Amino acid sequence: MRILIIEDEKRVAQFLRKGFSAEGFVVDIASDGERGSWLARTERYDAIILDLMLPRMGGIEVLRSIRQAKVSTPILILSAKSDLEDRLDGLNAGADDYLPKPFAFSEALARVRALVRRTSGSELGSILSVGDLEMDLLRRRVSRAGQEIPLTTKEFEVLEYLLRNKGRVISRVILTEHVWDMNFDSETNIVDVVINRLRRKIDDPFSEKLIHTVRGAGYMMKES
Ligand code: CA
Questions:
Q1: Contact between residue 135 and residue 128 where contact means Cβ atoms under 8 Å apart
Q2: pTM listed for this prediction
Q3: Dist. CA 30 → ligand 1 center (Å)
Q4: What is the whole-number distance in angstroms between the Cα of residue 190 and the centre of ligand 1?
Q5: CA 91, CA 100: separation in Å to the nearest integer?
Q6: 100: CA distance to ligand 1 center in Å?
Q7: Does this chain's domain 2-120 share its CATH topology with 127-221?
């Protein structure tokens, strides 16, 4: 799952990044409102954590810009402005939940998970599949033909991204950006290493291959 954290306080942003990464989320951070609004409107996230007091563009304004762009990603407001009026402003502007600072990471995590669950509508909404391969995002389990396949965090994230974009060619650069951080050195062959490991686990034992190499372009997930 991919999460956007719009927070200008470095310490808080890093605390959240560390926590959510350890839980297997892919984390992007925007340290001002303008960039946060832009990322929220142009990239796809499963949830957004939004601070209210932000440079360049305030949190409520960011929220309005996201909802005006018809982006319905669940948004959790995180702010020291904990009085009722701000809380209502946030919810009225289209936020889904509100968590006052200071907060415990476990509570932020529980609320984000609840939001993702609520917006995906049902448990079924959190399952991605191609052919007989299934990925359960909430339980973080992958199975093929009913058989569970243990994956490392990075393998899971690469597979999740390919599954979300099944039938589309995904370049190494795009994969690198989504699964590693934005500034990761894409010259390394880390993507190919992970893809090879995934193939050994999910394709080699089966006759139908699901991960396809598109020469000179990247990878695609589809039923052959
Ligand atoms: Ca702030």
A1: yes
A2: 0.63
A3: 11
A4: 35
A5: 13
A6: 12
A7: no
pLDDT tens string 107-141: 999 999 888 877 765 444 578 899 999 998 878 89
Q: In this model, does residue 92 exceed pLDDT 60?
A: yes
Query: Which residues are placed with Cβ below 5 angstroms of ligand 1, an ion?
Result: 8, 51, 53
Q: Tell me which CATH code domain 2-120 carries.
A: 3.40.50.2300
CATH code for the part of the protein at 127-221: 1.10.10.10
Separation of alpha carbons 42 and 65, rounded Å: 12
What 124-130 contacts at long range (C-beta under 8 Å, 24+ apart), as own/partner pairs, is 128/160, 128/163, 128/164, 129/163, 130/163, 130/166, 130/210, 130/221, 130/222, 130/223
Q: Which two tokens stand for residue 148?
A: 């569970």
Q: How far is ligand 1, taken at its centre, from the CA of residue 69, in Å?
A: 23
55 upstream amide cis, omega within 30 of 0: no
**What pLDDT, on the 0 to 100 scale, is given for residue 124?**
47
**Gap between the terminal Cα atoms of the chain:** 26
**At residue 100, what are phi and psi to the nearest 5 degrees?**
-75, 145
Provide the residue ranges of all domains of the chain, joining segments of one domain with +: 2-120, 127-221
